[in-house]
Amino acid sequence: MHFQKVSLLGVGLLGGSIGLALKKRKLAARIEGFVRRDASIAECESLGVVDRASRDLATVVKDADLVILCTPLAQMRELTAQFTPHLKRGALVTDVGSVKASVVAELEGPVANAGGIFIGSHPMAGSEAAGPKAARADLFEGAACVLTPNARSTPAALKQLDEFWSALGARTLRLSPEIHDDLVARCSHLPHVVAAELANYVLSPAHPKEQALLCANGFRDTTRIASGSTEMWRDIALANRTKLARVLGVFIEDLQELQLALERGDARAIEEFFETAKVRRDAWVDGGKSPE
Description:
The chain is α/β, with parallel strands linked by helices and about 290 residues long. Helices cover about 55% and strands about 15% of the residues. It folds into 2 domains: about 170 residues, NAD(P)-binding Rossmann-like Domain (Rossmann fold, 3-Layer(aba) Sandwich), CATH 3.40.50; about 110 residues, 6-phosphogluconate dehydrogenase C-terminal like domain (6-phosphogluconate dehydrogenase C-terminal fold, Orthogonal Bundle). It starts with a strand and ends in a 7-residue tail after the last helix.
């Protein structure tokens, strides 16, 4: 697989990592990146994440075989409206967003009307770090990447997108946008909410100053993702708010059961709570399926 030109719309952690991975594997003759600030042009080019960075969206997209939206979710619709007049006919367009139903609904039509093909992607890879300086060529190696085709997706385009992510080292799977959003609400979006609330609550200035001094590695590890981009996570929470609110409700109910067990001093229920978690996580880490 080889592209003559790949356009990255947004060159942060994910966009920059795609650029580095493409270069490492020699999968594109040219990689261009769209950025919003003049300072980002020199930064991206000096880091080598793209061959050329520019604030001129039309120039970046022109003649691209593959266009990848790597911006926060709330920016994608407007950006698509701006670049589709300059899209090469037959070009493949995808994204790296953490929510798929709304993205596919908003972007597929405009891209198709411009003669391109849009299929959603979501590489399950990232970091709390942001910006092109955090980019890594190996970010996608071994990571799951969900493709969300529908009835309008052509087999040839889907095959090409599958081969693209596989070439970057990802393990691809295909899900409907709706099922994807339901699953990530539990395994990705809910954990971020939990990490954020732990940071909000435990590090609140309402507590004694000694509180933060007692926060050690367990707290650091559990809250690591709370340091992620607030703009990105605001957009994710809003875009998947119905499913996230539902799973958050179930999570709260489970915590309330533990709360009742603590109030009753129910040692058996408390031990079962921790034991079930240990067994399921250990099975997941070992590569098996979580027991019922």
